[in-house]
Write a structure and sequence with these properties.
Blueprint: H1 4-13, E1 38-42, E2 45-48, E3 53-56, H2 71-81, H3 92-104, E4 109-113, H4 116-131, E5 135-139, E6 152-154, E7 162-164, H5 171-174, E8 177-180, H6 185-195, E9 199-204, H7 218-226, E10 233-237, H8 249-254, E11 260-263, E12 274-278, H9 280-283, H10 302-317, H11 320-342, E13 348-352, E14 355-359, H12 368-371, H13 376-388, E15 391-392, E16 401-402, H14 409-422
Parallel strand pairs: 3-15, 5-8, 5-9, 9-10, 10-11
Antiparallel strand pairs: 1-2, 2-3, 4-12, 6-7, 11-12, 13-14, 14-16
Helix pairs in contact: 2-10, 3-10, 6-7, 11-14, 13-14
Bound molecules: 4'-deoxy-4'-aminopyridoxal-5'-phosphate.
4'-deoxy-4'-aminopyridoxal-5'-phosphate (PMP) binds near residues 120, 205, 210, 240 and 264.
Length: about 425
């Protein structure tokens, strides 16, 4: 598959944009090669600048659960767009979308922002403002956007303070983030016992997508909820999982009881919308009701609200969509396992609903450490083998592949044939 126009443009882009991209993973650094410039999408398919067609398992990193260019979503956006793009004033669609969020999640008040990064950053500020405590806890391999306090990795030794994982993050700031292993309930319990009273919040991905897919153990989820006994707020980062694993996200699927939920991706239906939400007593601390400041010029903008609302209404009106995503996911998972077993390739396929990762290592893959054992050289071959056969898989082994309701059984089977040939 030739991509001369993408190649030339990507080369030129280096002169104008750092690395040629607006977000790092798009540069294909983990897999090498040139990313195709995608210029059109329809259903489960995308087309690049050179006219090549790909079956899409990235779906703009999650938002497009209905597939590309869904006619109803487009027409709702068009209708709103004709009346003006933004007003910076209250808009009726914000109220409607907030109502939809409340039907999905056990929350009283919803504040809209424009990105997942803003949602988690604001939720953490709120948690600190509400509890008057300095520390937050996050887990290795969980990604919550690029706010300073979240670009932090574990320092050496158990129960130590975080250190910056990006240049430009002050150490003093990173030290306020405590980093633990995901799916290590005992580590969490030990920290809570030692410093529970100083911790404002624990933020976590209820199913991890950003280390590749990791599934929470029951005991880990139990330990997370024990944090409440210490007055620690539990923040379920459902930016990826919300409206994807069920209408009520992982919270519904696993029966979680978070104090705050962060949402994004599907919430905006492909336009920039995200939110943080929780019970009244906590959310009332947000300005203008309370002392925790947070604002946004384009927050709750009508186009994003319209795309999100159209998407949520379609999901809510078609509960069969989730059963379908489950069935497609199961078919892809079973097929991948069969092909890889036949080829004698060590593998672990982690999946929850329509989120899936193939790790090229003996399973089970439960922790971030397990995930890091994956054979990234083999992944590169897998990735490029698929790309050359018209299947656009996430360009990193530490990302989740997504399905949409526009994908078909035939699409999945075609993917499996491509995997067979790629390896
Ligand atoms: N939280 C999670 C769980 C995410 O997956 C992401 C993005 N992949 C974010 C937060 C950040 O969202 P955004 O890219 O919209 O800032």
């Amino acid at each position: 598959m030739e991509r001369p126009r993408s190649q030339a443009l990507f080369q030129e882009a280096q002169a104008h944009i750092p690395g040629g991209v607006s977000s790092p993973v798009r540069a294909f650094k983990a897999v090498g090669g040139t990313p195709p410039y995608l210029v059109r999408g329809e259903g489960a398919y995308v087309w690049d600048l050179d006219g090549n067609r790909y079956l899409d398992y990235v779906l703009s990193w999650g938002p497009l659960i209905l597939g590309h260019a869904h006619p109803e979503v487009l027409s709702r956006v068009r209708e709103v767009m004709e009346k003006g793009l933004t007003f910076g004033a209250p808009h009726p669609l914000e109220v409607e979308l907030a109502r939809a969020v409340k039907r999905a999640f056990p929350v009283d008040l919803v504040r809209f922002v424009s990105s997942g990064t803003e949602a988690t950053m604001s939720a953490l500020r709120l948690a600190r403002g509400y509890t008057n405590r300095p520390y937050i806890v996050k887990f290795r391999g969980n990604y919550h956007g690029h706010a300073d306090g979240l670009l932090v990795e574990a320092g050496s030794g158990a129960l130590t303070l975080g250190v910056p994982s990006s240049a430009g993050v002050p150490e003093a700031y990173a030290r306020l983030t405590l980093v633990l292993e995901y799916n290590d309930p005992e580590g969490l319990r030990a920290l809570l016992k030692e410093r529970g009273e100083e911790i404002a919040a624990i933020i976590f991905e209820p199913v991890v997508g950003n280390a590749g897919v990791l599934v929470p153990t029951e005991e880990f989820l139990k330990a997370l909820h024990e944090a409440k006994d210490y007055g620690v707020l539990l923040i379920a980062d459902e930016v990826m999982t919300g409206f994807r694993l069920a209408f009520g996200g992982a919270t519904e699927r696993f029966g979680l009881k978070p104090d705050l939920v962060t949402l994004g991706k599907v919430l905006g239906g492909g336009l920039p919308a995200a939110a943080y939400a929780g019970r009244r007593e906590v959310m009332e601390k947000v300005a203008p009701l309370g002392p925790v400041y947070q604002a946004g010029t384009l927050s709750g903008n009508p186009l994003a609200m319209a795309a999100g609302l159209a998407t949520l209404e379609i999901l809510e009106g078609n509960p069969g969509h989730y059963a379908r995503l489950e069935a497609l996911g199961a078919r892809l998972e079973a097929g991948l396992k069969a092909v890889l077993s036949r080829k004698g390739v060590p593998h672990a396929v982690n999946r929850v609903g329509s989120m899936l990762t193939v790790f090229f290592t003996e399973g089970p893959v439960v922790t971030f450490k397990d995930a890091q054992r994956t054979d990234t050289a083999l992944f590169r071959r897998f990735f490029h083998g698929l790309l050359d056969r018209g299947v656009y898989w996430p360009p990193s082994n530490f990302e989740a592949a997504f399905l949409s309701v526009a994908h078909t059984e035939e699409d999945v089977d075609k993917t499996l044939e491509a995997v067979e040939k790629a390896l």
